[in-house]
């Protein structure tokens, strides 16, 4: 099927030398951008710096080669940092590897089952809420390194609230040297894009940070002080697997899979708008799954499509998956040649880079969107937005997504139930003043109700509003504005018909739409009512009602 065909195969059919040069150039530039980001995101995830580069190399290569987008660049992203750090702290690296492999399997199955289009059913308020919440958790997690704080022995906070409390309690240990390096690095990151259009600000900040620590009398922690640096290539590692470990990893795997699917497909949509293209969502999910499995087996962490790196690829001329493959190959060369020098990067500079990652609209924060939703969205959407945001900060993404989805569904059901109405036609007689001469006059024995809106379990109680009089002989239900009917509402209609029959009242249905009619036929309701009592329009239904009265 075309939806499960890698975009690389399609791109190579019309490939030429000119585009190859553009792809190579874009791939090298994106690799330069990805280098400091991958290191920073790996450290924020509680793993070694080389794990971030392994992820960009392995997952980036696999996802570009198999993906459903022609320009997607994949690698570690800030969305996973808090999740990964929590998994590593509780279950160790083997727990992370198993969770990532399971997430990869989930993603492959999602793609093969054509779930790519189902991601759109996750409300925008939930994705905005938890991405904004992740941005806050990233910032809080980097305050320690930015200010150079020292924690007492045994204090190793994992949750965001614990990290914030530790920062407040130990703020008196602030290192002014670290603050200077962090502030300068942050200033460079903010100003550099306005001066240097081609050189990534993060690379400039890293170089300046290294120079400050090496040549100025500043006592600041560096990556080399905290981690062992290795320039060895990724190697295959299969973790010890047991049923208990797998069971414990399933919730984390589900979260990683859902987040990877959302972020990668969101990146694809943004990329489509930039190149006027169209991605294959199912193939992209399969590629994301394969990429995460490969990343986990070769020492990496969870990966997904990176919006900022994808946008940089497009802006520099990349138009085929070759650019993503070149990006991975370039990082292999950088890993072997330059990785030992990564130990010189100051930790406050890493923190400053992650501050920008969290703030940048393309990457994470979406503050403008958040504020706009608060000002313009319905109250129910605002509730879901704040619930997702607060739960992400106070707990984690698992809780935020689960409760956010349940809350969104409940509020949607409430909103839809309020759109279902059952209204009776008005009774008038010759003595009623100001009667419109165009109103249709019906026999007193005919009672007409018009139902509008979906009839489902949340609105089935609306049928209870249908009341018949002692003199009623025929009840007409006009259903032209009922688009859908479920089993709960169907049961309520059965009860209504049975009550009417016990009183000698015939029920006639007018203009039943296709979906409700299928439900009625499947439930045997049409036989209960009588097929002659289903009419195509109100005129035919009223004519049938008059026949019933005459009989």
Task: Tell me about this structure.
By secondary structure, the chain is mainly α. Helix 5 (124-147) packs across helix 15 (367-376) and helix 8 packs antiparallel against helix 14 (347-359). The protein has helices at residues 7-11, 17-44, 49-66, 81-112, 124-147, 160-169, 176-195, 201-215, 223-226, 243-275, 281-297, 307-315, 322-338, 347-359, 367-376, 379-394, 397-417, 487-502, 514-522, 525-529, 538-550; strands at 74-75, 304-305, 421-424, 446-452, 474-481, 506-510, 534-535. The strands form 2 sheets. The protein has a 5-stranded mixed sheet, with helices on both faces. The chain has a two-stranded antiparallel sheet with strand order 1-2. Helices cover 61% and strands 5% of the residues.
């Amino acid at each position: 099927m075309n939806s499960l065909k890698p975009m690389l195969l399609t791109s190579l059919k019309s490939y030429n030398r000119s585009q190859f040069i553009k792809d190579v150039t874009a791939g090298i530039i994106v690799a330069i951008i990805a280098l400091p980001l991958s290191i920073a995101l790996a450290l924020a995830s509680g793993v070694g710096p080389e794990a971030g580069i392994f992820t960009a190399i392995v997952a980036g290569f696999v996802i570009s080669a198999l993906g459903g987008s022609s320009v997607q660049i994949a690698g570690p992203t800030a969305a996973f940092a808090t999740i990964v750090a929590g998994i590593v702290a509780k279950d160790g690296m083997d727990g992370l590897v198993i969770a990532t492999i399971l997430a990869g399997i989930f993603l492959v199955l999602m793609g093969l089952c054509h779930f790519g289009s189902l991601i759109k059913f996750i409300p925008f308020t939930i994705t905005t809420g938890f991405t904004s919440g992740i941005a806050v958790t990233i910032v809080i997690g980097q305050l320690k390194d930015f200010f150079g704080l020292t924690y007492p022995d045994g204090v190793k906070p994992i949750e965001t609230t614990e990290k914030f409390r530790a920062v407040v309690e130990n703020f008196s240990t602030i290192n002014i040297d670290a603050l200077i390096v962090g502030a300068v690095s942050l200033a460079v990151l903010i100003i550099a894009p306005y001066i240097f259009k081609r050189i990534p600000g993060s690379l400039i900040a890293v170089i300046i940070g290294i120079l400050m620590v090496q040549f100025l009398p500043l006592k600041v922690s560096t990556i080399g002080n905290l981690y062992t640096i290795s320039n060895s290539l990724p190697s295959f590692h299969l973790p010890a697997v047991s049923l208990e470990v797998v069971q414990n990893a399933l919730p984390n795997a589900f979260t990683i899979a859902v987040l990877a699917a959302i972020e990668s497909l969101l990146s694809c949509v943004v990329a489509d708008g930039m190149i006027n293209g169209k991605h294959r969502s199912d193939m992209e999910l399969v590629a994301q799954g394969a990429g995460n499995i490969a990343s986990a087996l070769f020492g990496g962490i969870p990966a997904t499509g990176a919006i900022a790196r994808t946008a940089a690829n497009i802006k520099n001329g990349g138009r085929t998956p070759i650019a993503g493959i070149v990006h991975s190959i370039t990082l292999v060369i950088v890993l072997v040649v330059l990785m030992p020098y990564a130990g010189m990067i100051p930790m406050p500079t890493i923190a400053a880079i992650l501050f920008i990652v969290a703030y940048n609209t393309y990457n994470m924060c979406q503050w403008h969107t958040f504020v706009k939703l608060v000002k313009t969205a319905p109250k129910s959407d605002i509730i879901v937005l704040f619930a997702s945001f607060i739960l992400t900060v106070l707990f984690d993404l698992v809780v935020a997504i689960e409760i956010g989805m349940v809350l969104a569904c409940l509020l949607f059901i409430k909103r839809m139930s309020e759109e279902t109405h059952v209204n009776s036609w008005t009774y008038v007689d010759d003595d009623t003043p100001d009667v419109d001469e165009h109103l249709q006059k019906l026999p007193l024995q005919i009672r007409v109700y018009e139902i509008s809106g979906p009839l489902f379990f949340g609105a089935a109680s609306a049928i209870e509003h249908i009341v018949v009089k002692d003199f009623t002989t025929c009840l007409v239900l006009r259903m032209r504005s009922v688009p859908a009917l479920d089993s709960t509402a169907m049961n309520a209609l059965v009860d209504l018909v049975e009550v009417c029959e016990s009183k000698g009242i015939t029920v006639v249905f007018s203009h039943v739409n296709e979906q409700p009619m299928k439900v009625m036929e499947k439930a045997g309701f049409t036989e209960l009512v009588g097929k002659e009592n289903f009419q195509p329009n109100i005129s035919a239904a009223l004519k049938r009602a008059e026949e019933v009265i005459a009989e």
